[in-house]
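Lab meeting notes turned into a lecture example. A postdoc, R.K., suggested we walk through two folding results consecutively so the class can see how the record format repeats. The first protein's sequence and structure tokens come next.
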Amino acid sequence: MKKIIIVDDDPVITGRVGKMFEREGYKVLTASDGAEGLKLIESEMPDLVIMDLVMPVMNGVNAIKKLKSDKNLRLIPVIVLSGIRDLSTIVQLRKLGIMAYIGKPHQWDDLLLRSKKAMGEIKEEIIPEKKSPGKKKDKDQLVMGEMISFTLVDVNDLKPDMVLATDLRNKANQVLLAHGTVITESIIKKLERMGISKVEIQAE
């Protein structure tokens, strides 16, 4: 039985998220702050960590920094589940090596499927199509609660450290790379192999 640790000081979140994972057959443990979470992670060596960011004693960013700097813990996949919707924080955490950043309130299917991907149980997240009423905004769009500018870039012109502005999908409902992903040389080569010619990145 795979083990998941949820680190969040909100008992409503730990309760609801924990029950969802338990129904799927996972063992769930919880901690209410980053310091307590790190101790639990070290003793239990879970298959996945779900981490909030705003917590007492030690916040989630510092807890993730410590986790990813520990040679015994750094390979444990981490998903951030947070109400903080700051793109610079998303990019910082992506560079630290988190698997996904999901904003609160979240879609249950989104969290579950991204978690299964992080644990190696599926290759891609199968995300239900979101139908939003009203007309689309043009090139300035709301992502993770922040209005950002997009620019369309040829894959040949991509450079490491550019940041994806939207989810990149290779099928209508399959996410290949999530928004906020920091571009690397290996990602550029993968996109070229898949024949993807253009992506939308966050404008400077």
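The second example is placed directly after the first for contrast:
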Amino acid sequence: MNSLDDQQLVQRCRDGDDDAFGVLVERHQDRLFHSLNPLLRSREDAQDVAQTAFIQAYQKLDGFRGEAAFYTWLYRIAINLALSFLRRQRQQTISTDALRESSGTEPPDLRPDNQPLSTLIRDEHSQLVRQTLEELPDEFRTVLVLKEFEGLRYDAIASLLECPIGTVRSRIHRGRIELARRLRQLLGEGLDTAAD
């Protein structure tokens, strides 16, 4: 059954073959989780939202028309769930431990004999950028994650968020400026503006 494409699996599922949906879950769960993780800032929340997205997709399978890829349709369900979750959790703060958990990685081994200095600096800056991004207001963080982490185009983000493309462009621009401003404060004035 693994040799079937997504459309064929969807059709089998509609015909009553629940194992076909299991194959779809196995095929797409890791990618969906890794897409949600930076947006939700928590591995557990990303897993919960991904699981809920698969449940909703299964329940709404008759509404899948096949005009887009199955993953695109599933991703839209997941993003809508994630945005609803974030609206409910606006006041939640993140600790260093939670950041380590949400990134899925342990802090780099800081001993000079185990890592070159340039790698160490890059890892520290990467962690700082990730943490600073997670502290941005939802409207900026969401569009920046979709653009920078997911590589989505402006029109795709506008479609997902159901807002005008001009709003997406504005939020991305303002989000980049705010991210750069916060990073300059943390790293000093030597950081060039990344908002262009």
